[in-house]
């Protein structure tokens, strides 16, 4: 494993994306961490903050295939997975691949589709494969889902069940950029979208290498203990109906490894854990209604735990 | 306990000094502070804590009852005894606090219902410290010592949580300033309080004319309404032999009357000197005759007038600061104990009041006509003093009625005229006043006396009880060179007043008696240590002994093992970086438990530390991280880190390179 090479790959991709995504360096870092760790990312954000641009910029930078599905209540599982159609000439059923057979998939407003459709996608995310009409179809190696949901509108939505929230490695939001950055965005897009001119900066092989290197980053026992302490503490915190699962610990470990690599280290430091703990753990927690009404939020709980669980130093 | 060592012990001693419970405070302080030195800790379950809290509640309840019964010391000063068991339990337990269920009943219920996923405890040592100070203040000794002690203890407590970034000198100066301001503030507040209090008392006294004023007695003569008399027991009298023949205990005597007021003219008090033991007082220079009586009275205030039989010679068992007497035989004591129990020797045949003067023959002009008319009617001039007394007794006894109802008389008559000529009915003050005037009209010097009549023997208590409704007024007449008590009120008055008493009176009396026994017990020690307090703590010690004896419940607790921890390898725990860690902590930037070293460095940066210096530190930190969190790290890294730390420490010690810009003036406060 060559740490410096991996760090350079990361830096190239990040710089490339940031040339079109102004003022979102931390979001880019988090997205790439999720991507490099092999997880999927859920963006909870308002319309127009650049979710699509971010996903597109990522796919262009790494020379990957990009597809997008706009989720609507009448969307069917076959619209995502694909459908077998009877071919008159061959007298056989021919499988037509759905948009899920791609590298990077933007699932826009995922909470607008019916639960059946949602679970079709989420199952595919978890398994890395889909079965249609009894035939198994393997998804791309680099399959990466960026799902979005709108936090404001709740009418006509089907909120994702806890079990499915758990399948996303991270959830975070982009947020609005500052006034200066926003003016710069206006300047950039006077004539064309800069995305049009964005070229890939690394090869797919590099990306595969990066993802493989993440696996090799080491985690000392003490840091493992800290991860477990944090996640277990969510299960004991008053006001939490459902705490973090072992999958949360796993995800936290993987994303932290990716961050370590981005920093040019082949080991995880406690800072890496703290950096993404909220993004990785909070969305998996179910707050009990009474606590929620008294103003307790999942983010707040994880934040409090970060400020109480003793950290190795 | 999270309080600094010895602080709780010191505050307990302070409390003991202030309240005079040093005997109790010293063992409490020793036991509490001693707990720091023994390694043994007990694994108290939440239920144990509940029981201990219940014990505390019981002690408080007991104090409450005692306080009501004794009606003396304020309960505030006993507080530390009340919560001591809980505090000690915390000090000796493996937990760092007391279960919340022990403190809040609602939490206890939730614990029972299993709603709490884990044990929740609260540290009670700081609240206890505050309560001890409050209890010390309840003694209310009003000396500068108290304030100084309070300041020292508070300063001590604050010193332990002083933010390190403040210079100790500045911090000390601030503390002293606050202390000084507090002192002047309370001093002037107290001055203001005294001014207002005096004004209020003046106003109140003017309006109400509160009585048993040895100089002036306001009677109900001329008032309209019904006299309300209380059944409260004010005195208890136990004679060793016989009671005084008149059964009267006098409080004060007066000689001048003017429309409803009896005034003592020329009633200057003369100090009496105590006998050697300081508790016995010779009231007059005569030799005591006959067996004494024991009087128990609940007195209040700084000055109290004593109830004494006529001819009192010698009083003992009365620890007061000063006693004085005036020529009317009124005896006043200063700084009286709340429950005074004194013994009076008295001369049955003689009084020791001052000789009569012209005032003792004076009849006010407004009443003179009516008085002379009655005197003529009874032919008092022609009779000897003895006959006069008999005639008056017969006259008032047969032709007058006793009544507690005060009626409005005829407008053109004074109340005395109305009483003598028209209504012929009234209460003791009217009888006594009229009696005095008729005596004087017959040429016998007479005075007006107020006090109590001993009448009711309580079989329950085995002694006489004197209630507020036994308050009485009578005549003292100067016959044969002696003053004698002459009671001219018809003897039926006591019966009549007794009838007005509520039918539940005997039940109340039982409670009064229990209360009296309690206060007697409470006051039994006089000056000595309050023994009853020891009885309150005894159960606590018994419980503790039981705990210590039952070995199976106790365990030697290894501090390290008390936290359940997985055995994980911690490479590089002895990293050279620890030196920098200490240096930064001394600078006021301690790492919090949850904070990573990196976060701490960022905090440093926010506080205005030099960017270059922090960047250098970050480089060193990275090396530290390598040996800490990278399994199988090259041993050379440790050496490298060691060198880097050495270099940094040398630079650091040679000059404060972290804050170069602000070094000259002042350290950053944040």
Task: Please describe what this structure looks like.
- The complex is a heterodimer of chains A (313) and B (670).
- A five-stranded parallel β-sheet of chain A has the order 2-5-8-1-9. A two-stranded antiparallel sheet of chain A has the order 3-4. A two-stranded antiparallel sheet of chain A has the order 6-7.
- Helices cover 46% and strands 15% of the residues of chain A.
- Chain A folds into two domains: 200 residues, Rossmann fold, CATH 3.40.50; 97 residues, Helicase, Ruva Protein, domain 3, CATH 1.10.8.
- Chain A has 313 residues and is of the alpha/beta class.
- The longest helix of chain A is centred in the last third of the chain and has 17 residues.
- The two termini of chain A are 27 Å apart.
- Chain A has 13 helices and eleven strands.
- In chain A, a hairpin with a 2-residue loop joins strand 6 and strand 7.
- The radius of gyration of chain A is 20 Å and the shape is globular.
- With 670 residues, chain B is α+β, with helices and mostly antiparallel strands.
- A seven-stranded antiparallel β-sheet of chain B has the order 11-15-18-12-6-24-23. In chain B, strands 14-7-22-25-26 form a five-stranded antiparallel β-sheet. Chain B has a four-stranded antiparallel β-sheet with strand order 10-16-17-13, with no helix packed on it.
- In chain B, helix 1 packs parallel to helix 7.
- Chain B is elongated and about 130 Å long.
- The chains are: A alpha/beta (313), B alpha+beta (670).
- At the A-B interface, helix 9 and helix 11 of A face helix 19 and helix 20 of B.
């Amino acid at each position: 494993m060559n740490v410096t090479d991996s760090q350079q790959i990361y830096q190239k991709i990040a710089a490339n994306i940031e040339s079109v995504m102004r003022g979102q360096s931390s979001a880019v870092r988090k997205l790439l961490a999720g991507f490099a760790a092999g997880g999927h990312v859920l963006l909870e954000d308002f319309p127009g903050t650049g979710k699509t641009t971010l996903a597109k910029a990522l796919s262009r930078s790494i020379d990957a295939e990009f597809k997008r599905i706009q989720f609507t209540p009448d969307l069917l599982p076959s619209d995502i997975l694909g459908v077998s159609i009877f071919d008159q000439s061959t007298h056989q059923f021919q499988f037509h691949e759905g948009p899920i057979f791609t590298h990077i998939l933007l699932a826009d407003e995922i909470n607008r589709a019916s639960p059946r459709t949602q679970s079709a996608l989420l199952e595919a995310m978890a398994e890395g494969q889909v079965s249609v009409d009894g035939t198994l179809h393997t998804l791309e190696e680099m399959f990466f889902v960026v799902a979005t949901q709108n936090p404001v509108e709740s009418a006509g939505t089907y909120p994702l069940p806890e079990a499915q929230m758990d399948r996303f490695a991270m959830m975070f939001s982009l947020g609005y950029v500052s006034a200066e950055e926003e003016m710069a965005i206006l300047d950039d897009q006077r004539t064309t979208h800069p995305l049009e001119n964005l070229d890939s900066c690394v090869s797919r092989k590099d990306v595969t290498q990066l993802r493989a290197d993440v696996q090799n980053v080491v985690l000392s026992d003490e840091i493992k203990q800290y991860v477990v302490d944090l996640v277990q503490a969510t299960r004991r915190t008053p006001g939490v109906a459902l705490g973090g699962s072992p999958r949360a610990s796993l995800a936290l470990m993987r994303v932290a490894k990716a961050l370590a690599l981005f920093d040019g280290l082949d080991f995880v430091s406690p800072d890496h854990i703290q950096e993404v703990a909220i993004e990785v753990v909070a969305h998996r927690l179910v707050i009990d209604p009474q606590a929620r009404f008294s103003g307790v939020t999942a983010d707040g709980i994880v934040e409090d735990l970060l400020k109480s669980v003793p950290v190795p130093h | 306990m999270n309080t600094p060592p010895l602080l709780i012990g010191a505050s307990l001693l302070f409390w003991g000094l202030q309240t005079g419970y040093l005997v109790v405070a010293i063992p409490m302080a020793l036991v509490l502070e001693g707990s720091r030195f023994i390694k043994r800790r007990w694994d108290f379950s939440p239920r144990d804590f509940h029981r201990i809290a219940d014990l505390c509640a019981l002690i408080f309840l007991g104090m409450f009852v005692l306080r009501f019964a004794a009606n003396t010391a304020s309960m505030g000063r006993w507080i530390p005894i009340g919560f001591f068991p809980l505090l000690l339990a915390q000090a000796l337990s493996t937990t760092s606090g007391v279960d919340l269920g022990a403190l809040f009943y609602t939490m206890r219920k939730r614990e029972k219902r299993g709603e709490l996923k884990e044990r929740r405890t609260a540290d009670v040592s700081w609240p206890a410290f505050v309560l001890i100070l409050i209890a010390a203040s309840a003694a209310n000794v009003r000396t500068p010592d108290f304030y100084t002690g309070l300041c020292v203890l508070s300063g001590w407590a604050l010193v332990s949580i002083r933010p390190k970034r403040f210079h100790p000198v500045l911090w000390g100066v601030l503390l002293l300033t606050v202390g000084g301001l507090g002192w002047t503030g309370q001093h002037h507040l107290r001055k203001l309080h005294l001014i207002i209090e005096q004004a209020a008392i003046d106003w109140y006294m003017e309006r109400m004319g509160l009585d048993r004023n040895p100089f002036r007695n306001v009677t109900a003569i001329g008032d309209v309404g019904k006299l309300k008399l209380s059944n409260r027991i004010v005195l208890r009298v136990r004679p060793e032999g016989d009671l005084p023949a008149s059964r009267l205990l006098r409080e004060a005597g007066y000689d001048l009357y003017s429309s409803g007021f009896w005034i003592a003219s020329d009633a200057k008090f003369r100090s009496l000197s105590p006998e050697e033991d300081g508790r016995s007082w010779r009231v007059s220079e005569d030799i005591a005759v006959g067996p004494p009586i024991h009087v128990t009275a609940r007195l209040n205030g700084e000055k109290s007038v004593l109830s004494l039989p006529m001819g009192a010679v010698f009083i003992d068992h009365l620890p007061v600061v000063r006693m004085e007497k005036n020529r009317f035989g009124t005896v006043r004591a200063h700084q009286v104990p709340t429950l005074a129990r004194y013994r009076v020797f008295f001369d049955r045949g003689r009084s020791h009041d001052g000789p009569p003067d012209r005032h003792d023959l004076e009849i006010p002009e407004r009443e003179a006509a009516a008085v002379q008319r009655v005197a003529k009617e009874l032919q008092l001039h022609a009779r000897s003093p003895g006959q006069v007394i008999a005639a008056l007794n017969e006259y008032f006894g047969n032709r007058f009625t006793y009544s507690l109802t005060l009626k409005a008389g005829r407008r053109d008559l004074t109340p005395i005229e109305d009483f003598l000529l028209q209504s012929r009915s009234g209460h003791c003050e009217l009888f006594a006043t009229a009696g005095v005037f008729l005596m004087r009209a017959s040429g016998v010097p007479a005075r007006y006396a107020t006090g109590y009549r001993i009448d009711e023997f309580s079989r329950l208590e085995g002694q006489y009880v004197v209630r507020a409704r036994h308050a009485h007024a009578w005549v003292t007449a100067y016959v044969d060179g002696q003053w004698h008590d002459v009671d001219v009120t018809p003897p039926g008055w006591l019966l009549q007043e007794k009838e007005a008493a509520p039918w539940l009176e005997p039940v109340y009396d039982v409670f009064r008696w229990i209360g009296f026994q309690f206060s007697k017990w409470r006051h039994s020690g006089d000056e000595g240590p309050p023994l009853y307090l020891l009885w309150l703590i005894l159960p606590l010690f018994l419980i503790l002994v039981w705990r210590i004896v039952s070995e199976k419940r106790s365990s030697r607790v290894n501090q390290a093992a008390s936290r359940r921890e997985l055995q994980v390898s911690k490479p590089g725990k002895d990293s050279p970086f620890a030196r920098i860690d200490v240096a930064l902590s001394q600078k006021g930037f301690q790492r919090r438990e949850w904070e990573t070293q990196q976060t701490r460095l960022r905090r440093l940066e926010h506080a205005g530390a030099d960017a270059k210096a922090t960047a250098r530190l970050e480089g060193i930190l990275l090396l530290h991280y390598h040996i800490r969190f990278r399994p199988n790290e090259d041993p050379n890294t440790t050496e490298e880190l060691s060198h880097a730390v050495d270099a940094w420490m040398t630079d650091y010690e040679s000059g404060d390179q972290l804050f170069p810009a602000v070094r000259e003036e002042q350290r950053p406060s944040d």
